[in-house]
Amino acid sequence: MNLAPIVLFTYNRPDHTKKTIEALLANTLSNESELFIYSDAAKNEQVEESVQAVRSYLKTISGFKKIEIIEREKNWGLADSIIDGITNIINKYDRIIVLEDDIVTSPHFLQFMNDALELYKDEEKVMHVSGYFFPVDPTGLPDTFFYNQTSCWGWGTWARAWKDINPNVDFLLKQLEKINNKNHYFKSCMSQLRANKRGDIKTWAARWQANVLINGGFCLHPSISYVENIGHDGSGMNSTNNTVLSKKSIAGQEKITITECTITENITAIKRANNFYISLIPKWQTRVINMLSKKLRIKKYHQS
Q1: Whether 183 contacts 212, CB under 8 Å
Q2: What is the DSSP track for 19-53?
Q3: In terms of pTM, does the model score above 0.85?
Q4: pLDDT bracket for residue 284 (50, 70, 90)
Q5: Distance between CA atoms of 229 and 154, rounded to whole angstroms?
Q6: d(CA 116, CA 110)
Q7: Is 224 helix (H, G, I), strand (E, B) or coil?
Q8: pLDDT digits (tens, 9 = 90+) for 144-161
Q9: Across the chain, how many H-helices and E-strands are there?
Q10: Calpha distance 109→99 (Å, rounded)
């Protein structure tokens, strides 16, 4: 098998980075995998010391087939750094596995990702492989299935899928407005893109999600996650102090044999993901939404 290179993006969290690396080294394919690490430069003097601490640690890493550290000379910010880094590496390889410095993987994560990237390498419709799925009841779900959210907590893709990525927010919003999709990932993508357009945030994941949706792409997920996000402790640039999404997520300690499945979204996965998101909404907001929906139905009834 042609193993995908691992691309890790780091900044100013040495403790998180160390845990991410240690978990990767515990993977069965780590010593056969090439690791590329992007280290972004400090945005200001306040984080200079922690950035240097990360860079000092990175120089001590061993255990992979090859390690290459790319130290940015200026601060790129996460969004620009990730898009540029992925593009540079994927232009040299036909596939890639992407991690950030707060993603702890199970010992079979690399095997899962490489098996999936190999199995679907020639399937143009499949554009994304995720190591994560929401902490929902997996009963009734197959080991792997398609659910078209580009979960970015440990994921992979191919050069054929990434080559036409367009990061322009205005273009993406215009194209998405032509699509009729009521799933949560679509609404979330639109919301994040609009926030990027306003300048409230600057993120990359929504842009990748939009490109996949616009191109009719499919995303493969495992029923039980192979990753855990340890960055929801308020330490990240775009994360909050919230562990709900990560709760009990790294349960994929057993290796599964990936078999090709029908390329269509799994209805059960869609329902459970949507219900999971609804469960995150505060109860008072849910009551307001239900009340407004009821009023709207009554109004439509009287108008008909």
Answers
A1: no
A2: HHHHHHHTSTTGGGSEEEEEEPPPSSGGGHHHHHH
A3: yes
A4: very low
A5: 9
A6: 10
A7: coil
A8: 999 999 999 999 999 999
A9: 10, 10
A10: 11
